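FAQ: What does a ligand-bound record look like?

Like this one, built around zinc ion:
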Amino acid sequence: MGGGTVLAIGAGEARAIAPGARRTINARHLMAMPGLVNAHVHSNEAFERGLHGTVSLEPWLARAYPPLGAPAVPLRWHYLRALLVACDAIHSGTIAIQDDCLNPGCDPDALDQVMQAWADSGLRAAVATTLADRSYLDGLPFARQICPPQLRAQLDARTPLSIDHQADFFTQAHQRWNAAANGRLQVILGPRGPQRCSDTLMRRLVQLRERHDAAIHMHVLESRLQLAASNVQACGGHAEGGFLQRLQRAGLLDSRLTINHAVWLGERDIERLAASGACVTHNPLSNLRLGSGRAPLRALLEAGVPVALGSDGPATGDTADMLAVLRATSLIHRDPQVPRTRWIGPDDAWHAATRGGARSMRLGPQHGQLVVGAPADLILVDTRHRAFVPMNDPIAQLAWSASPEVIDTVIVAGSVLMHERRIEAFDETAVLTEAQAAAQAWRELHLPGQMASGAAFDPLLSEVIARASAHANPVATL
Ligand SMILES: [Zn+2]
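The answer part, i.e. the structure of the complex:
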């Protein structure tokens, strides 16, 4: 490879193929493959693996993102949390990642830390800036009527940032960081979800997208309660229509949109997505953990919707190990009620994790393939590992037999990020040591308050879910 692209493919002496190469790697016993793309993660959750217990999405959200706010953390923690995710990513053969790093206060210093971490990781990264203008209560069906007056007053006292402020934050972040680190970094738009965005904000998103040619990365119809919100909105008298109708009417449905989760899509929604070229990220670990349901993956693929895979944030996916995501994707869609021919297999999952992810990140048509002229974003897999003894089907065994131990080398744009399972892009041991101490401080200083603040919303959410259940088939209980 040279200039960050693949020059030739073949067995033999590297120096004969690429004379003058700066570095040669003896790849005997190693299998070269395109690297994986983690198309949906939240690096800000990296200290929260394994927390929050057995709850569904809405009470989980109240704990991970307390509606009454959480105290600011030291700037350095934003950097460490992104690099912690990068460790998981690189060890599991990831070459690119989309980080929907929640930053609702639009703190430019926090964003700089996150962007610098991704620059230092050596990975390709698209980082979303957070946008929302509807309050927490207005994002949940019936919540404003049900909420006790005192809590409602506390929530309403939290003045949201103006759309102008949030748009300026994106624009400045885009100017500072988009295409930085030799073009590896992108800054994209991260509206929180249709239930948290007014039509005015949606129109502004379209303007920003057109002005900067920026992708939009948005959670849509992740839970049954969100389906209820969409249905209530559709017949609520304001003629807004369901979530997908609103996105379409606002002009958001196009090939630069990626919707995350998309568990509760209807048939018309899938048709709308397919006609628009918008992408979907499938996040099976998170959907399983929160009992959110199972996205209609086969229907999406049959309709021609580009599908990518994501781990989701470490507080629901609990890992950014893309081999675990491959495994879950290629196992959970095997349902005795569904004909075997419509199940999802390792090849489908592999395509989504490589070319599907590249499509969502708009990395260019040759990304996700190992062909001459493609960007040199490769992994070398150890075929001597017991997971490949015997070697019957590399893709199926990568999904079903392997762990990150099999990933020997990760190369992005021709630069070696990891070799012989040792990360070369940054000092992993130093990052883990510092992150361990920082996370311990977070556990002591912030976690108890965050948990108590979030759990206080359980009674309200129970009532909201019960009341909304009539609008979306049975709704999961707390
Ligand atoms: Zn997410």
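Follow-up question: can I read anything off the structure? Yes, for example: The chain has a mean pLDDT of 94.
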